């Protein structure tokens, strides 16, 4: 497991794992699934600079999630479906030159424990001029 050598971070990873497993179990009950896509004009993704492909799609997906939260909706960022991207595309009629970036299940939030996640200090994750 990621961060197995760090007890605090390992606990967080276990909660993430449990959350992912739960989402997998209830995914079919989620009323709305948003899939953010990029049209590349080709059946395969171009090699090299992927920021040109995803540079506007992924920030738009994140903005959608923030807007949903403001309206009392819960979302989750997942890419696990991409193992079956072609099958999903076939079911939904997504053209071959359109590539899925993220699946965002969306529903009314039913829990009572939603709160900001703990974050590492900025000094631990921001590097200026050198690592």
UniProtKB/TrEMBL annotation:
Source taxon at top rank: Bacteria
UniProt-listed SUPFAM superfamilies: FMN-dependent nitroreductase-like
Keyword set includes Ribonucleoprotein: no
A Pfam family assignment: Nitroreductase
Gene3D superfamilies: NADH Oxidase (3.40.109.10)
Annotated ranges, domain Nitroreductase: 9-98
Keyword Oxidoreductase belongs to the record: yes
Keywords: Oxidoreductase
PANTHER family: NAD(P)H NITROREDUCTASE YDGI-RELATED, NADH DEHYDROGENASE_NAD(P)H NITROREDUCTASE XCC3605-RELATED
Family designation: Belongs to the nitroreductase family.
Record-given protein name: Nitroreductase domain-containing protein
Organism this protein belongs to: Allokutzneria multivorans
């Amino acid at each position: 497991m990621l961060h197995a050598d760090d007890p605090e971070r390992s606990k967080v990873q276990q909660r993430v794992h449990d959350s992912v497993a739960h989402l997998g179990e209830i995914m079919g009950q989620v009323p709305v699934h948003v899939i953010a896509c990029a049209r590349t004009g080709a059946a395969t993704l171009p090699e090299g600079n992927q920021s040109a492909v995803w540079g506007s799609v992924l920030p738009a997906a994140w903005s959608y999630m923030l807007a949903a939260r403001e309206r009392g909706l819960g979302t989750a960022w997942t890419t696990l479906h991409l193992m079956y991207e072609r099958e999903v595309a076939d079911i939904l009629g997504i053209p071959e030159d359109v590539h899925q970036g993220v699946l965002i299940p969306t529903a009314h939030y039913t829990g009572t424990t939603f709160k900001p996640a703990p974050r590492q200090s900025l000094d631990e994750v921001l590097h200026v001029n050198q690592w």
